[in-house]
Amino acid sequence: MKTLDCLIIGGGFAGLQCAQRLHQAGLAVQVLEARERLGGRTRVAPLAGRTVDIGGQWIGAGHSELTALAQAAGAAIVPQYAEGARLLHLTSGHRDRVKRYRGLIPNANPLALLELDRAIRRLNRDSQSLSLDAPWQAAQASRWDHETLATWKQRHLRTRTGREIFDIAVRSVMTAEPGMLSRLGFLFYCASNNGFEALTSVEGGAQAATVGGGMVQLAEHLAAPLQAEHRVALNADVHRIVRTEHAWRVEDRQQRQWHAHRVVCALPPALQDRISVEPALPADRARLANRMPMGSVIKVVVAYATPFWREAGLSGEAVSHSLPFNTVFDASPREGATGALVGFIDGAPARHWSARPSEERRQAVLDSLVRYFGPQAAEPLDYVEHDWVTDPWSRGCYVGLMTPGLLTELGPALRTPWSGIHWAGTETATEFCGYIEGAIRSGQRAADEVLTALADRRR
Ligand SMILES: Cc1cc2nc3c(=O)[nH]c(=O)nc-3n(C[C@H](O)[C@H](O)[C@H](O)COP(=O)(O)OP(=O)(O)OC[C@H]3O[C@@H](n4cnc5c(N)ncnc54)[C@H](O)[C@@H]3O)c2cc1C
C-alpha cells in the first residue's frame, strides 16, 4: 500500500483547510471523516422551504480567512439584522419582567450597571495582558487558572442583577456555567476574540454576518478539489493509529487502513480518546481528552409567516437568565415576507432539555418565544433543531472548555506535535479560538508544520 505524505483525521473546517493547503503544495493527502458528511460542527437543515444553519453560523468582525473563503466560494455575506430594541428577561428585582433596551448594556439597576461596567473593563484589561501563544506564562497565570469564573463573579459583582447578566453573557458565549470555567481560560478566550464586548455583539462582533444558503457550502468548497481526486473518505471513523517502521498506519472501524509519514488530528481534544495511539501519546496530550469537555448547546430555528417582532420595533434579539431558550436572534430570509428566529438552549439547561422528549422541548422553546415576543410566537410555520449535546461526533459544542488548571498544566500540549502527529482544530487556535475562523487558522498552522517537517526530511 502506498505511503501518503499526510493523513488528516476530521473533515471540519480545520481538517479541510489543512488538507487543501497540503494538496495545493503537491503533497499526497487523504482526509478521513467519521460522519457521512463534511463540515463537522457546521450543519444545515431545511426550514420552511429554505436552508438554515443549525450549527456554526456567523462570520464575526475580523474573521478574515472565513470572509475570504466565502468570497472565493461566491457565497452571499448577509449582515445580521439588528435594527430595533433588544429584550432582556431577568428574574432578579424585575419580578419576571421582559425589558426592552438598546446598545450593549441593558438599562437595569444603576448599581448593577456600574459594577458590570467595572467588571468588563477589568476582564478586558487582564485579558490584554496575555500572550495568545502562551497565556500560561502570564505573571498571574497560576492564580487566575485555579479560580473559577463563578468565584471571580462573586467577588466582583455584588448585585443579583449584575450576576444574572454576567451569567447570561458567559452562558451564551461559552455554552457553560461560570463555575465550570477557569478565569485564565476565559481571559484567553476574550483575548483571542477581540475582547468581551466583541464576543457578545452583532455589529463589530462575533455575530456580524451570516452566509446565504448556510455555512456548510464553504466546507464543501474547500473540499471540492480534494474530492475530485478522491482525497476524502466519509464514514471513516478512525479508531487506531499505529507507529510502523517508517510511517504511521491509521485504521478505521470498517477495517480500512492508510499509511502516511505525518498525521494531523483535526478534532476536538474531547474526541481524541476514541482513537488509540500506539505507542501511547505523551501523558499531557492524552489527558487533554478528559480535562477539556465540550460545552452544551441545542440550536433551534423557528419559521413564522412574518417577522412580526419587527413591527413592534424589536430586533429579534432576546436573552434570559431563566427561560430555556436563553439566547435568540432574527434569522428571517432577505427575500419574501416570512420571518424566522434562531436561538440556543445553552449551558446546564441544554443538558436538562436534551434528556426531555422532543415535543416537550419544542413546547418549552415556543413558550420562551411567547414570553419574549407575545402570543404570535405560539404559531410557527416550521421548526428545526439539533441537539449537539448528544451528537456522537461532537459530544457537545460550541467548543472544548478550559476548565480550572487546564491551561497552566496542559496548555503547551494543545499544539506541540509529537513524533509525526500534529494537532489542529479550533481548540488549538491562538486567534479566534472556538470559532470557524480559529479552525481555519489552526488548519493553516498545522499544514505549515507538516510542510516544514517534510521539507526537512527530503533535504
Ligand atoms: C450550535 C453551534 C453554533 C456555533 N456558532 C458559531 C458561529 O456562529 N460562528 C463560528 O465561527 N463558530 C460557531 N460555532 C463553532 C464552530 O462551528 C466550530 O468552531 C468549528 O466548526 C470547529 O471546526 P473544527 O474543524 O475545529 O472541528 P469540527 O467541526 O468538530 O471537525 C472535527 C471533525 O472530526 C470528525 N471526527 C471526530 N472524531 C473522528 C474520528 N475518530 N475519525 C474521523 N473523524 C472524526 C468529526 O465528525 C468532525 O467532522 C458553533 C458551533 C455550534 C455547534
Describe this structure in words.
By secondary structure, the chain is of the alpha/beta class. It has 3 domains: 3-40 and 216-292 and 402-458, FAD/NAD(P)-binding domain, CATH 3.50.50.60; 44-82 and 206-214 and 297-387, Polyamine Oxidase, Chain A, domain 2 (Alpha-Beta Complex); 105-199, Orthogonal Bundle (Guanine Nucleotide Dissociation Inhibitor, domain 1), CATH 1.10.405. The protein is 36% helix and 21% strand. It has 16 helices and 19 strands. It has helices at 13-24, 64-72, 110-128, 141-145, 149-156, 160-174, 183-192, 196-199, 216-228, 269-272, 283-291, 308-311, 348-354, 358-373, 406-410, 436-458, and strands spanning 3-9, 29-32, 44-47, 50-53, 77-79, 85-90, 97-101, 209-211, 232-233, 238-243, 248-252, 257-265, 276-278, 297-304, 314-320, 327-330, 339-346, 382-387, 421-423. The strands form 4 sheets. Strands 1, 2, 9, 10, 11, 12, 13 and 19 form an 8-stranded mixed sheet that branches. A 7-stranded mixed sheet has the order 7-6-15-16-17-14-18, sandwiched between helices. The longest helix has 23 residues, at 436-458. It is globular and about 70 Å long. The two termini are 24 Å apart. Residues 9-15, 32-35, 40-42, 55-58, 236-238, 266-268, 271, 274-275, 297, 299, 388, 393-394, 397-399, 425-426, 434-437, 439 line the site of flavin-adenine dinucleotide.
